């Protein structure tokens, strides 16, 4: 039985059902549903969804409340900000953050504190993603808001945009967008959600890697890769080498930074906003997001079915639903991603060299986890460093589990480009192949909102 907790969360751990035979599963799929007729002998361990949090008020009101009571910092209202330049760093079109819903109260408090509107500029933290066009920028923050301010796309490949600030103690060279050094106050408008290497996204991640140079981004990402561990989803700050590294790198700016980060429910609605010190407010926000998005599985499943919702934009975002729930699958088990991919592959880079899935999976199994990193460096030495990270992470996942997928919006040749995924043209063929691979008796864990959920073990 689900229980209402004192902090308003519904217990996301289900009452695990007894054996179910021939279950028909329905997953959200665009504006419709995708029906999955499971093999008759498969036993469903549970359908695992994040806690059902509903917004108490709209995003604008939530933001005003959070701005009035920031964590670890003075409120912006009442500060003497006359004559100061303010840079608003905003996440890009690949993130589902509805910044337009809470942009106005942020701008209002700056104007009320004496900031000249002409001294407010916007920088989209693209990381390695493609530039945003005007239509996308207007959708992100609102057409009127965009028209009122000068705005920029970060370009990690343009060295003229970057300035070198030093290196972290872990050896990451810190090249950041030089605009960050030219403003008196920096506000970070983004999202806290499960992240494969950081535990949770958000916080100073918007500066590094969001506004970092290509090498800085790649080196920072590789901090989270080791033979012992590579998936940190849900981890606390102190357990994520990448998070500790990026926070150290961002501090090299020596600028005043103020956080405005939202947490969404699985419907994409803003349920809380955290404002204040970029480290303290982020930690408070990630604790909240952890309670909302974590689900407990009773045992590792033979088969995991995970849906990309709400990260349905493209393949780069959709793939996160596999990494998020890795702990739900037994090593060697089958993970199946249902990837809506509204805009296809998006800007996901692909390796120069690929190997057919039937050859790649046995190869990485034979290599073993300790030799994945040198193998990846060897085959991707001519790749950009960010691609080297993606290759290595994908190979580590493939070494642990079978990775299959279905999408009716991806090019049927996608798996030839990506390599680590076995792609199927229909649900029927996928499930028939899964039954042949796993057998007529198997346990199944189902994640309808895999993009907003992460799995942890009952122990």
Helix content: 25-40%
Q: What sort of overall outline do the alpha carbons produce when their principal axes are compared?
A: globular
Q: What are the low-pLDDT stretches, counting only 5+ consecutive residues below 50? A: 1-21
What do we call the CATH homologous superfamily of the largest domain? LarA, N-terminal domain
Strand order in the sheet with the most strands: 3-19-15-16-17-18
Question: Strand tally, please?
Answer: 20
Number of helices: 14
The overall pLDDT average reads 91
Instruction: Give the class-level CATH name of the largest domain.
Output: Alpha Beta
Please give the largest β-sheet.
6 strands, parallel
How many discrete structural domains? 2
Estimated share of beta-strand residues = 15-25%
CATH A-level architecture of the largest domain:
3-Layer(aba) Sandwich
Task: Please characterize this protein's 3D structure.
Helix 1 (59-68) runs parallel beside helix 2 and helix 10 (357-367) crosses helix 12 (385-400). The protein contains 14 helices and 20 strands. It is globular, with a radius of gyration of 22 Å. By secondary structure, it is of the alpha/beta class. The protein has helices at 59-68, 103-112, 134-141, 143-147, 214-222, 241-251, 280-293, 315-318, 320-324, 357-367, 372-379, 385-400, 414-418, 427-438; strands at 24-29, 32-37, 42-47, 86-91, 120-125, 150-153, 162-167, 173-177, 185-191, 194-195, 199-200, 256-264, 270-276, 294-297, 301-307, 329-338, 402-406, 422-424, 442-447, 454-457. Helix content is 28%, strand content 24%. It has two domains: 24-51 and 294-457, LarA, C-terminal domain (2-enoyl-CoA Hydratase, Chain A, domain 1), CATH 3.90.226.30; 59-291, Rossmann fold (3-Layer(aba) Sandwich), CATH 3.40.50.11440. The strands form six sheets. It has a six-stranded parallel beta sheet with strand order 3-19-15-16-17-18, with helices on both faces. The chain has a six-stranded mixed beta sheet with strand order 6-5-4-9-12-13, sandwiched between helices.
């Amino acid at each position: 039985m689900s229980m209402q907790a004192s902090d308003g969360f519904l217990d996301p751990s289900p009452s695990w059902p007894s054996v179910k035979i021939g279950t028909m599963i329905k997953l959200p799929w665009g504006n419709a549903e995708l029906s999955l007729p499971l093999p008759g002998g498969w036993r469903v361990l549970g359908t695992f969804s994040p806690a059902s949090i509903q917004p108490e008020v709209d995003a604008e009101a939530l933001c005003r409340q959070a701005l009035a009571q920031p964590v670890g910092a003075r409120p912006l209202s009442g500060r003497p900000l006359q004559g100061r330049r303010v840079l608003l760093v905003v996440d890009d079109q690949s993130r589902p953050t509805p910044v337009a819903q809470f942009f106005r109260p942020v701008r209002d408090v700056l104007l009320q504190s004496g900031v000249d509107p002409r001294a407010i500029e916007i920088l989209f933290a693209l990381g390695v993603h493609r530039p945003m066009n005007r239509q996308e920028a207007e959708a992100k923050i609102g057409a009127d808001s965009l028209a009122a301010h000068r705005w920029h796309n970060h370009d990690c490949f343009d060295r003229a945009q970057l300035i070198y600030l030093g290196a972290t103690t872990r050896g990451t060279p810190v090249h950041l967008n030089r605009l960050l050094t030219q403003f008196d106050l920096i506000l970070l408008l983004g999202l806290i959600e499960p992240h494969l290497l950081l535990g949770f996204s958000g916080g100073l991640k918007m500066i590094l890697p969001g506004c970092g140079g290509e090498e800085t981004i790649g080196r920072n990402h590789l901090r989270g890769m080791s033979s012992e561990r590579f998936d940190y989803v849900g981890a606390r700050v102190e357990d994520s080498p990448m998070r500790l590294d990026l926070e150290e790198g961002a501090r090299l700016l020596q600028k005043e930074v103020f956080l405005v980060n939202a947490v969404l429910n699985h419907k994409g609605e803003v349920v809380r906003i955290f404002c204040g010190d970029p480290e303290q407010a982020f930690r408070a926000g990630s604790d909240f997001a952890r309670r909302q998005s974590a689900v407990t599985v009773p045992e590792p499943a033979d088969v995991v079915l995970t849906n990309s919702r709400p990260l349905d934009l493209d393949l780069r975002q959709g793939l996160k639903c596999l990494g998020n729930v890795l702990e739900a699958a037994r090593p060697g088990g089958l993970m199946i991603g249902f990837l809506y991919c509204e805009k296809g592959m998006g800007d996901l880079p692909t390796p120069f060299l690929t190997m057919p899935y039937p050859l790649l999976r046995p190869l990485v199994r034979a290599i073993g986890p300790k030799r994945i990193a040198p193998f990846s460096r060897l085959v991707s030495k001519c790749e950009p460093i960010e691609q080297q990270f993606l290759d290595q992470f994908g190979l580590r996942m493939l070494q642990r589990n079978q990775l299959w997928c279905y999408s009716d919006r991806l090019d049927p040749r996608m798996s030839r480009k990506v390599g680590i995924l076995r792609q199927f043209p229909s649900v029927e063929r996928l499930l028939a192949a899964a039954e042949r691979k796993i057998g007529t008796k198997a346990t199944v864990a189902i994640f309808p909102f895999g993009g907003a959920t992460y799995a942890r073990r009952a122990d």
